[in-house]
Write a structure and sequence with these properties.
The structure is a homotrimer.
Chain A lengths: L25 H16 L3 H4 L7 E6 L4 H13 L3 E6 L11 H11 L2 E6 L4 H8 L4 E6 L5 H15 L6 E5 L6 H10 L6 E5 L8 H9 L3 E5 L11 E4 L10 H8 L6 H7 L5 E3 L23 H18 L3
């Protein structure tokens, strides 16, 4: 089962797996984002604690990821649920047991399993044998659907729409899993225009580009920051990894052209352009930008990761 | 204090340590299994949450064991308690502090300690200095009493009795801690007949065999799967570890004779023979067997690990 | 920002960081210790669970410390809060992300962050960027304020006062972070007399000694256990680390002179002298002393670590 076989949500989240962004249509996204807004706005923290009271969620991490794990852990616990944290690299299940047997084990103890794995398709493999919902928290070069959902929710929250947007995505557009997901998500809506800025070696794959354009997304490759149109709705910046380059010199030459700082913002961003980044960053955004009210990467974007996951958990495990 | 000095339960679980299966007589087992059945049958999850509300249990693991730790963690949390998870190999208490000092430390923060250790007698050593209940979650070649209890409960649940049974235990009967415990447990009841199937090098220790027979257990060694009597109540299969053999060739030759698959089931198992295994497995049971309704190793047997631990925690920490 | 810039508590704990003992004056200590006494005396565990209900505290540990982490973990959970445990050495945030970005991340998921770090000033650095309270759980050679507070509370609890005391501190007075904090704390009160006993190489720094004396603390260096005055209120013993000596021989020669055993107690301690140690110990206190009613290092002193932290969390996050 590849993640593209994942069952469509079709606006009924009850007991579904979350494996891929492709499970979501517009209506399902709207339902999810309404729920997210309502949970984020809830002032009475104790009310939320009833939603997963008595439920247990296993966080099964085959590779470390303190950000994603912490966010899921907080999400479950803020809904009153409990977590079992299983770090596999440090545990005996690493020794020879199949992924399927490990999933069946924790299925017996819990009401859902969040899985992070380095191998493409691991989450779908887990879902195939599991009788409880599986949440894909990243499967190698595969998908990381909750990251995509938090990015989309952040844009929706700030722009009140996911249609008619003009945005910039920058950095490594070839390998960047989060960028691919975001573009796929935006292609579900109308009249979106995205400018693509990347080093030559790291351009968006032409095939993926065509697919997205067929769905109606307007994509324009630009060559330099000087081509960024004023007044975009958002900038989505990503990391350019050293490993992608033949030499340190080559890497530095390229990377220095892709740094967001106050000067770049004053020249090319509009007063309402929100600045996003999936984090961690390694210099692509200067820390001087952190206090700019348009910067959301350290605040709402990350906080929304927790709220989107709370909304998903709530819709899937505790439908009203 | 060796684990055989452990205080007999004598049908009063309050604040007792659980170090060894030898603490249990028939009445205590019946009380425990009644409690387990009642907890497993409780539909209102929130009711269970009151049992350990406000209590803290430390899970002190000197060796990794995600299955046992996860099961205890889920057990405590499903009863409304909280866990402190201390993985010693990754922590400073590894550096020079005695087991006793570590136990005294966590005694101050918690209401019970679950300990897993590679050394025989470690749990009893802990119990000697501790003012709060100690649960032995495996001490090397020593005991792992909650594993034995979950195995016995699983048979009891499926067969409605622990007397008058005919069973098969197979695999490494020389080193297998779980098999020894199961046989001891069954020797407390009447008219049980057990067939023993193992490679020559891994037979049940003759001395242990005599002890069990003195208690009234009927034991028959058989030479091959073809000797398995039809219509046994259960098969309890265990892992044959490569390390026990002088060569890979020797290991494979033996191991291939000890694999449960659909063919073997159709030839030698009865319609009500339940198939058990303590897990993890490394090929002793083909995955094609997993969906057979008689196979309980991935389902009830494992789930019962959580429920038996919930029942113990409840009887020991929260007697009514 | 160094920890000495930490905002004075000034008897208002609401949403304050706890970075240094220097934030506390007498009144603040009295408020804290009253709260600690009341929490320690609360018989209804469920009442405590309401204090942090719905709150999440991140335990961000850049170096392992099962004792301190366990104590904070228990403190949060006994107040009904939830914890996110992030062991950084085992996690991806270790890879290149700045401390500040990591703090901003967990700020989004939680209501407070407890941080342990090997670098001096790390907690203050965290507090500088954080919008939620930061608890310093030890920053290298810097401070470990909650350890100091639990030591002072233990003396207060047993002696009903922090003035007019006669005490002995022994061991490594040069490097011992806990000793320095305790002496600073006692210097806030009147008429305290402290005897200092250490190997020559590990005497209290003369400059720190002068500062403490200026504040009114009376300090007397003694040369040998035979100089310990009878009827002191407390002995505070610390570890002498092998690494401080040029050779194993040199270390053993010195260390053997600094061991508390029953004989030493009978010769030099009074009937009401309490015996303290911050733990872990590596032989400075013989285990025969553990059962002496005057020994509090394995019992009240450690338990008070949890209660002082509960009191702090309560005053800071849940003021009434």
């Amino acid at each position: 089962m590849s993640s593209s076989d994942a069952k469509s949500i079709n606006n009924d989240f009850t007991q579904k797996d979350i494996l891929s962004l492709s499970q979501f249509d517009r209506t399902s996204l709207e339902t999810l984002f309404d729920k997210t807004t309502s949970i984020k706005g809830e002032k009475d923290l104790r009310k939320l604690l009833q939603i997963l009271e008595g439920r247990v969620v296993t966080l099964l991490f085959y590779e470390p990821s303190s950000r994603t794990r912490g966010s899921f852990d907080a999400a479950v616990q803020r809904l009153g649920g409990r977590t079992l944290i299983i770090n596999v690299e440090a545990s005996s299940v690493a020794k020879g047991e199949t992924l399927e047997d490990t999933i069946k084990t924790f299925e017996n103890y819990s009401d859902a399993i969040v899985i992070r794995h380095s191998e493409l398709g691991a989450a779908a493999k887990a879902a195939k044998v599991s009788n409880i919902p599986i949440f894909n928290a990243g499967d190698g070069i595969g998908e990381h659907p909750t990251q995509a959902l938090l990015d989309m929710f952040t844009i929706f929250e700030k722009k009140k729409s996911l249609s008619g947007l003009v945005g910039l995505v920058a950095g490594d557009l070839k390998h960047g899993r989060t960028v691919h997901s975001l573009l796929k998500g935006l292609s579900l809506f109308e009249n979106n225009v995205i400018y693509l800025l990347s080093p030559d070696q790291l351009r968006l794959d032409p095939e993926l580009k065509s697919q997205l354009e067929e769905k109606g997304l307007k994509l324009f490759e630009i060559e330099s920051v000087t081509d960024i149109p004023k007044d975009t709705d958002f900038w989505y910046w990503t990391r350019v990894q050293k490993e992608r380059f033949s030499s340190e010199v080559e890497y530095k030459k390229v990377n220095n052209k892709f740094v967001v700082n106050n000067e770049l913002l004053s020249l090319y961003a509009g007063p309402k352009t929100i600045i996003m980044h999936p984090l961690p960053r390694v210099g692509e955004i200067a820390t001087e930008v952190d206090k700019d009210p348009r910067a959301v990467y350290l605040t709402d974007q990350m906080k929304n990761g927790m709220y989107v996951r709370m909304a998903l958990l709530s819709l899937i495990l505790s439908p009203v």
